Amino acid sequence: MAKKKGRESVDETLNDLDIPQEESVEQKVALELNDKNSGVIVEQKKGEAIVELETNDTMTLDNQGLISPGAIFHSASYAALLAVNDPNGVCIGSDIKFLAPLESGNLVRFHAKALQSDIKKIEVKVTGEVLEIKVFEGIFYLVIFEKHILRIKLSKRQKEVSNES
Fold first, then answer.
1. Would you place residue 165 in the very low, low, confident or very high pLDDT band (cuts 50, 70, 90)?
2. Could you give the residue ranges of the DSSP H alpha helices within the chain?
3. Among the four residues 4, 39, 81, 137, which has the most C-beta atoms within 10 Å?
């Protein structure tokens, strides 16, 4: 009687296939940001990033240690930029939810995942957790320009319109 392949032999077969795993990528964006206020990159792969932010007293709104939502948004948008990892990418919008208040000393782990790739407008889903409890979720909208946004030259008509304002 033939021996059935068990789960172990299936796993061994999959391991023997030598399927390439997503490798880390070189960081190309946000190279000048301060880790203390943005978070530390834990992992960065094509289309994904994990950032950990340890909240601190410089981020608080009051003497009770309540963290400003702006500090959380900043770190989440940093994770989104890292997931896309294009130096010509710019965040143009977001739909976000703060699901729980945070206090100084919390360690927030943001996981960002691009929902599309190789297009000019990209949506990136970002979740944030403290002790495996979701405290943040959102979608960030990024646009990829041909060159850095501050190096794009306006047409003569666009300059006239902006000068009229």
1. low
2. 7-16, 35-38, 69-84, 156-164
3. 39
**Amino acid, single-letter form, for residue 1:** M
- Give pLDDT tens digits for 10-58: 344 334 444 344 678 999 998 888 888 899 999 999 999 999 999 999 9
User: What would the two tokens of residue 70 be?
Assistant: 């702006």
Helix (H) or strand (E) run with residue 21 in it: none
Fold (topology level) of 26-164: Thiol Ester Dehydrase; Chain A (3.10.129)
- pTM of the full structure: 0.78
Please provide the distance, in angstroms rounded to a whole number, between the alpha carbons at the two ends of the chain.
85
| CA distances from residue 151 to 59, 145, 146 in whole angstroms, order as listed | 32, 10, 10
Report whether 89 contacts 143 (CB < 8 A): yes
